[in-house]
Design goal:
The complex is a heterodimer of chains A (276) and B (333). Chain A contains 13 helices and no strands. Chain A has 276 residues and is mostly helical. In chain B, a hairpin with a 2-residue loop joins β4 and β5. The chains are: A mainly alpha (276), B alpha+beta (333). Chains A and B meet through α8 and α9 of A and β6 and α2 of B.
Chain lengths: 276, 333
């Protein structure tokens, strides 16, 4: 039976939920608002919320000072290619772990996850040196490989959880029905796993897009994505909050819009396995 | 054709032997039921025949051809799973068509077989639905439909009725038996329910710990169980097995007597006892009678209207010629 909830209680719950939601969203809202202020209004005390002279000047200055499109393009290439490459490696890996597990499968999964527990800065030096040796410092290829590798454990885990949910008997039934391995994947597994693969792809794209540690440390000018673009506005010559906000808004806008339209998939992806 | 011969078939998982070398002959057109308690290896045996598990030794012949190394699809067998294992993203029509699509059958032939199967299984109105929109019984019919259209040389059923409620189970049991009579194709059926085994089988294979305890017709097994295990497993309610002094009178370790082979009297008889719990089924009543010196209560079948109550003293007399006798090793004497 559903638990009875009084209407007062419901109202309270709604209020609490909205408050938490607004608190979480507030920094982003503030950034967006600030990006439309003048520099003076941006640092005004007390702060001004809505009643200021809205201006888009910051955006034109930012666009003039730095080539936004180049950073955006780098972000798209790095996040996109690393995600697709990651999926190409992770799908067969997760497949074999879910459907033909060996004695060591659980250990391998845990080991992969344990690599995420290592502080990234611990391997910065060796990776930096390797990048210099290979001559891939400040290149998109170098970043694609690193970003793909750091997200790979998460993709494999997510896909593994999805594939585990597909009953083995269905695949066995397809084998009995005469399906070859190719048919089995094409007609049975893939259609059943599409929602899982899609949300893994989305989440990984967002993670790769937001990746700042490696992109900041391994790029200079050529391969720098939007994370580096934002960072370039926190210059030693003093912070220009309005411009920094405009740059940040421009950097997060694409991923925010993508996230908004795919929120259903994302939520399903993140809570998968929690409820059957 | 659908003759399946198992020769010294054996299966181990690591160092655990689940099926010691085993021989079995399944004749063309036979309805064979593998029955046994949970974990006795009956499903594993079926999966070995299907090719879903590899044998650790021995050979499996289907219609005289060695099929031991063949992949499942090449064995000309169709299987119905306990969980139905339907493709959730396909309509009923596409589910049934799938094996034919894999076999590359012409579209017209596919359509013809789909409508025949749908008509036979009362699925015509549901062809365009997804499995998720069907009831358990309908899903099971789709799974059977998917098996029929392949026109296999034998059907394999892995506890197909376990997920259905009791009423539906009886109905589907009859439908499967009817299907067997109509198609006249070999069927190998796995169940832990001995009532299913008794009502459907031409031949029952009783398994325990991977070992075949007895093979025979349902009535063979019922009347002449080869050992104590089969005696206790086949028949519902189960045979009364009595050890100790009473068995010693017959010069054996254990005697067995079925509930319907015991006469009840209010005045005199071989065993004096007190009526315990009774189960009224309408047509019959089963009394559990406690008798001094017996380790377990004796189950007795009586008519539907016998007037006996909890605590009444009664006398029981087993029919002497229907007493089963077993030696110390559990074998029939």
């Amino acid at each position: 039976m559903a638990r009875a909830v009084s209407s007062n209680r419901k109202l309270l719950n709604t209020l609490i939920a909205w408050t938490i939601g607004l608190i979480i969203f507030f920094p982003i809202l503030w950034t967006i608002l600030t990006s439309f202020k003048t520099e003076a209004q941006a640092i005004a005390d007390p702060p001004i919320f809505f009643f200021f002279d809205w201006t888009t000047e910051n955006y034109s200055v930012v666009q003039e000072r730095s080539n936004y499109m180049r950073f955006l393009w780098n972000s798209i290439i790095i996040a996109g290619v690393s995600t697709i490459l990651g999926l190409i490696i992770a799908i067969p890996a997760a497949w074999s772990m879910a459907f033909v597990p060996s004695k060591r499968t659980k250990d391998i999964l845990l080991w992969m996850l344990s690599t995420k527990m290592l502080p990234a800065v611990g391997v910065l030096y060796p990776i930096y040196l390797i990048f210099i040796q290979l001559g891939i410092l400040d290149t998109r290829i170098g970043l694609i490989v690193v970003v793909m590798l750091i997200n790979l454990p998460i993709i494999v885990w997510m896909l593994y959880t999805y594939f585990k949910e597909i009953p083995g008997e269905i695949l066995e039934a397809s084998r009995m029905d005469g399906a070859s391995l190719k048919d089995e994947i094409l007609y049975v597994l893939a259609p059943m796993a599409v929602p899982g693969i899609a949300s893994t792809l989305l989440l990984n794209f967002i993670l790769a897009w937001n990746e700042a540690f490696w992109t900041l440390n391994l790029t200079a000018a050529k391969a720098a994505p939007l994370t580096a673009f934002i960072a370039s506005y926190s210059s030693p010559e003093g912070l220009f909050f309005a411009k920094l906000s405009a740059a940040s808004t421009m950097a997060i806008a694409p991923i925010l819009i993508l996230g908004w339209f795919s929120q259903k998939q994302l939520v399903r992806g993140l809570t998968f396995g929690a409820v059957k | 054709m659908g003759r399946i011969t198992l020769k010294k078939v054996q299966k181990s998982f690591g160092s655990t032997e689940v099926i010691p070398p085993l021989d079995l002959e399944i004749n063309d057109g036979e309805f064979v039921v593998f029955v046994g308690p949970s974990g006795c290896g009956k499903s594993t045996l079926l999966r070995l025949i299907a090719g879903l598990e590899d044998t650790s030794g021995g050979t499996i012949e289907i219609d005289g051809v060695d099929a031991t190394g063949l992949p499942p699809a090449k064995r000309s067998l169709a299987m119905v799973f306990q969980s139905y294992a339907l493709y959730p993203h396909m309509s009923v029509r596409k589910n049934i068509a799938f094996p034919m699509k894999m076999a590359g059958l012409p579209k017209a032939e596919q359509e013809k077989r789909i409508s025949q199967a749908a008509a036979a299984l009362n699925l015509t109105d549901y062809l365009d639905r997804r499995p998720g929109q069907l009831s358990g019984g309908q899903r099971q019919r789709v799974a059977i439909g998917r098996a029929i259209v392949r026109e296999p040389s034998a059907f394999l059923f892995d506890e197909p009725l376990s997920n259905l409620d009791a009423a539906l189970r009886v109905g589907m049991r009859l439908e499967i038996s009817e299907l067997h009579k109509r198609l006249d194709t070999t069927m190998v059926y796995v169940t832990h329910d001995q009532v299913e085994a008794m009502t459907m089988a031409d031949k029952i294979v009783v398994l325990q710990a991977g070992v075949i305890e007895q093979v025979g017709s349902p009535l063979d097994l019922y009347h002449t169980p080869r050992n104590k295990f089969v005696a206790g497993f086949i028949g519902s309610p189960r045979m009364n097995l009595i050890e100790g002094a009473e068995a010693a009178k017959h010069n054996v370790t254990t005697i067995g007597i079925r509930p319907e082979h015991i006469a009840v009297s209010g005045e005199s008889g071989d065993w004096k006892g007190v009526v315990g719990v009774s189960e009224h089924l309408g047509s019959d009543t089963f009394f559990h009678v406690k008798i001094d010196g017996f380790a377990e209560p004796i189950t007795v079948r009586a008519g539907g209207n016998v007037d006996l109550h909890y605590g009444d003293t009664i006398y029981l007399t087993p029919q002497a010629d229907l007493i089963h006798k077993f030696d110390g090793g559990g074998l029939r004497v």
